[in-house]
Amino acid sequence: MPEKIIPRSQDYSRWYTDVVQQTELADYAPVRGCMVIRPYGYALWENIQQALDQRIKQTGAVNAYFPLFIPQSYIQREAEHVKGFSPELAVVTHGGGKELEEPLIVRPTSETIINAMFAKWVQSYRDLPLMINQWCNVVRWEMRTRLFLRTTEFLWQEGHTAHTTAEEAQEEMLRMLEVYHDFAENEAAVPVLPGRKSEKEKFAGAVASYSIEAMMGDKRALQAATSHNLGQNFARPFGIQYLDQNNELQYVWQTSWGLTTRFIGAIVMVHGDDQGLILPPRLAPIQVVVVPIWRGEEQRQQVMAAVERVRQTLGDRLRLEVDGREEYTPGWKFNHWEMKGVPLRVEIGPRDVEQGQVMLARRDRPGRKGKTSVPMDELAPRVPALLEDIQANLLARARDFLERNTAQPTSYEQFKAIVADGFAQAWWCGDGNCEAQIQEETQATARCIPLDQPEGSGPCIHCGQPAKEVAIFARAY
Amino acid sequence: MPEKIIPRSQDYSRWYTDVVQQTELADYAPVRGCMVIRPYGYALWENIQQALDQRIKQTGAVNAYFPLFIPQSYIQREAEHVKGFSPELAVVTHGGGKELEEPLIVRPTSETIINAMFAKWVQSYRDLPLMINQWCNVVRWEMRTRLFLRTTEFLWQEGHTAHTTAEEAQEEMLRMLEVYHDFAENEAAVPVLPGRKSEKEKFAGAVASYSIEAMMGDKRALQAATSHNLGQNFARPFGIQYLDQNNELQYVWQTSWGLTTRFIGAIVMVHGDDQGLILPPRLAPIQVVVVPIWRGEEQRQQVMAAVERVRQTLGDRLRLEVDGREEYTPGWKFNHWEMKGVPLRVEIGPRDVEQGQVMLARRDRPGRKGKTSVPMDELAPRVPALLEDIQANLLARARDFLERNTAQPTSYEQFKAIVADGFAQAWWCGDGNCEAQIQEETQATARCIPLDQPEGSGPCIHCGQPAKEVAIFARAY
User: Fold this and answer.
1) Is residue A458 part of a domain?
2) Among B21, B22, B31, B105, which would you mutate to test the A interface (most chain A Cβ atoms within 10 Å of its Cβ)?
3) For residue A291, what is the enclosing H or E element?
4) Of A42, A132, A142, which is closest to B64 when you measure between CB atoms?
5) Chain B residues whose beta carbon lies within 8 Å of the beta carbon of residue A120
6) In terms of CB atoms within 10 Å, which end of chain B has fewer, N or C?
7) How far apart are alpha carbons B155 and A63 in whole angstroms?
């Protein structure tokens, strides 16, 4: 097993790919731009799914499944939508040995096919709100791909809702943004900034798009989830109408929202270090790894009996693994499980057995600082408490990193220096030309216009015109 | 809501489609041969997934995700495989606005892409066994499609394993067949016959295929899951080799196994009746529905207070729904939830409140026979016990139906009469020509050669040649 990860400071981009591949989260597939999500990565995705699915269901949405293929004519019904997605489509032209009369698009997102069904299902105001979520794969033909961050095929959940009023749709859109916000911070320990996307960055076909933006370890931004207010942009071309309480035909108001396997990339980049992954305990496939240390048969028996006690004490309540392999040394195992990002290691040697204790080593505090010895009979309360502390610490230090690397420039010169190595929070006029020029000059884009706005107003950081909102600018993934 | 289901006896095929559509399990999609799995159907699939996923993980297999697209050259590497699947492929020829150099196949099954990765991951005997499962969508271009039973796109899990010996692969194949057997009978209450497929019916590329076969309500057979012994048929073309303990290169031995959304069709057809669905309690999205009965505000308050007590008593432990809608009558609701197949209904009216009791109505025993009144304070133990009884009763009566409609013919004339309306268990020589002639003459095919074989031998039911095994013959979905 060639475990070599280049230091983050030396080459952040290669560090990322090394970590993803060496820890066996994912691998490149022999298909252009596609990845294989390996068991360790998929177990992380399953934990993400579980935590998010529960939250989605609590809002009243239900899961369903819609076809992978979308007739080409459907994609073309909403003008902005087709313009935005056309360059990225994969097209099925042959099926069952014959050329198809109408080519089928492999879904890049499912607004069109889902709304075609909504038009059939929605008849009366009693059928509303209609709130449906789908976990599935989607395909977008990407030019430059990177494991998890940008792949031709990826996994996600996409929610699609229909409401009787514009206000209700806006509320739903914000509710889901808050669900993502809560999930990101409380499950993944990834602090995020929720806000509105600029006109240029919004979803093709949306009235307004919102996102949560996170800061990676190299101080670049990553859009970690999106929630869109679609207005009646799809309701009209797809004819989603209902009879209201006055028996009049009305178009519905809609939202859509999604979070993808890209989020795994965010977890890697927000928490990881030169040793490899650091996984937040709530989502880690393995929360605790137990490494026995012994020499000779007598010690082995004593130590393994203690290991068994630990497994019995914690194994039912935590995702715990015992590494009892005899072909590797304890030192090798320490490195291995550190690289894999397991939040907590339990070491048990002959002296620990004698003293009725074990050694706990935190992944988030390397070396001596992160080690404590704990009496065997205190494990049941101490280990879960320690995992909670690790979870809280990861969030706190990521938030501190985000805050330390976000600044408010008062001049465009300052702005340029800030976005070269962090987030700039600046008054912005909202004009698309301004945005394009900023990007050309600094490579930074408007990440979002945060929901949380300061009082007052100020001059646009680029053009100096009066601005009513601040935006976050940064170079982004 | 137009709730009309044609009686089973009148038109079984339309009855099936009516039930699936009227109960909102699934709907036809506006894409040829594809379906939409609606929330009620998807909730059933989620329960199937959960029950099966747990069993799969208990065998030591882990989940992962492989690409949707397979390079055409991969599909072509195993001769039988490409022959079997070629007529059913959907082909992506264009991506990102350009024609692809090599067309991509939308996976009909993933042996080829997964084994290409196995070749990379497997180096030493220490990497074996490798046992991986994937939950995903697959596409097979079908000519005649029916909701759940045969659709161009369907959902499934596909397991793929690699082992050091032929014996170990055979054991794994049988272990998974037993997992499906256990799942079908103990979760879905669908009795099945596990056995080996004939040469003609085996998976394209397998050394031997096994399946579980179930009997539908019209006495036709349905293949409910399959488990294949692939031998080294994929290991050789894909070069999956490992160094054994003597440091010699060896090819692995493999299996694959799968269960699809087709299984939902089996649940519908095995248990359903003229009123609609009857769902097995372990998998039912709603296990208990509570219908309040009242007139006027005073009664409403009393009844709804009792309903709330029922919810508090049972709601945490069971999937329970209260139908408090005021626009429908209790009678309408009884019919509605019977149609939806909810195993148990709780009725609460003013007289029940007075007497401190509720009325329970079993879905599996219509009318008075299935009704019992139960004191409020006995609900906590009685309702779960009743659900278990319903589960057991569904399995028992389906098994009885299977047994009553399976016969052992002693002549080919008898055989023909039996397969016209049931399963025939008959000595069979195993010859492909014999099988083809039987199918031509009776429309029945060899469903499987059951694992459970009688002693001795006999003359083949068709050609009279000595036969060592009995096979199940039936007309099949």
Assistant:
1) yes
2) B31
3) strand A288-292
4) A42
5) 27
6) N
7) 14
Tokens representing B419 are 């397969």
Chain-chain contact of B36 with A67 (C-beta, under 8 angstroms): yes
A265: closest CA among A38, A9, A6, A26? A26
Considering its fold, how many domains does chain B have in total?
3
Instruction: Note the pLDDT of residue A244.
Output: 97
Instruction: Please check whether residues B264 and B301 belong to one and the same domain.
Output: no
Q: Is residue A176 part of a domain?
A: yes
- Taking only the tens place, the pLDDT of each residue in B32-69 is 899 999 999 999 999 999 999 999 999 999 999 999 99
B41: chain A residues, CB-CB within 8 Å: 64
Are residues B456 and B370 both part of a single domain?
Answer: no
Using a CB-CB cut-off of 8 Å, the residues of chain A touching B90 are: 69, 92, 94-96, 104
Confidence of residue B406 (pLDDT cuts 50, 70, 90): very high
Let me know whether A377 and A411 are in one domain. no
Looking at the structure, tell me whether residues A249 and A122 fall in a common domain: yes
What is the extent of the structural domain holding A159? 12-271
Q: Do B255 and B350 lie in a common domain?
A: no
Q: Is B155 in contact with A65 (Cβ distance < 8 A)?
A: yes
Who among B37, B70, B139 is closest to A65 (CB)?
B37
Query: Contact A62/B45, CB-based, under 8 Å?
Result: no
| DSSP letter assigned to residue A370 | G
Q: Are residues B267 and B340 in the same domain?
A: no
Write b or e for each residue in B216-251: b if 16 or more Cβ atoms lie within 10 A of its Cβ, otherwise e. bbebbbbbbbbbbbbbbbbbebbebbbeeeeeeebb
The per-residue pLDDT for B3 is: 61
Residue B449 has pLDDT above 90, yes or no: yes
Cβ-in-10-Å burial (0-12, 13-18, 19+) of A169 comes to buried
Contact B135, B129 (CB under 8 A): no
Residues of A within 8 A of B96 (CB-CB) are 87-90, 141-143
Residues A70, A107 contacting (CB under 8 angstroms): yes
Size of interface A-B (CB pairs under 8 A): 167
CATH number reported for the structural domain that contains residue B38 in this entry: 3.30.930.10
Same domain, A242 and A297: no
| pLDDT tens per residue across span B129-156 | 999 999 999 999 988 899 999 999 999 9
**Is there a single domain that holds both residue A372 and residue A411?**
no
The tens digit of pLDDT for each residue in A300-341 reads 999 999 999 999 999 999 999 999 999 999 999 999 999 999
Is there a domain that residue A399 lies in? no
Rounded CA-CA distance B355/B339 in Å is 29
> Per the CB < 8 Å rule, is B87 touching A97?
yes
CA distances from B365 to A361, B136, B341, B370 (A): 59, 37, 12, 5
Contact B137 A137 (CB under 8 A): yes
Does A1 map to a domain?
A: no
Nearest-CA distance from B56 to chain A in Å?
14
CATH number at A307 reads: 3.40.50.800
Residue A1 has pLDDT above 70, yes or no: no
Minimal CA separation from B87 to chain A, in Å = 5
Looking at chain B, which residue has its C-alpha nearest residue A36?
A: B66
The pLDDT of A75-92, averaged and rounded, is 91
pLDDT tens digits, one per residue of A379-404: 999 999 999 999 999 999 999 999 99
* pLDDT, averaged across chain B: 96
pLDDT reading at B2 higher than 50: no
pLDDT, tens only, B349-402:
999 999 999 999 999 998 888 999 999 999 999 999 999 999 999 999 999 999
Phi, psi of B360 (to 5 degrees): -105, 135
Which residues in chain A have Cβ-Cβ distances shorter than 8 Å to B139? 68-69
A46, A92, A132 ranked by CB distance to B92: nearest: A92
In sequence order, the β-bridge partners of residue B160 are B132, B256
Which pLDDT belongs to residue A3?
61
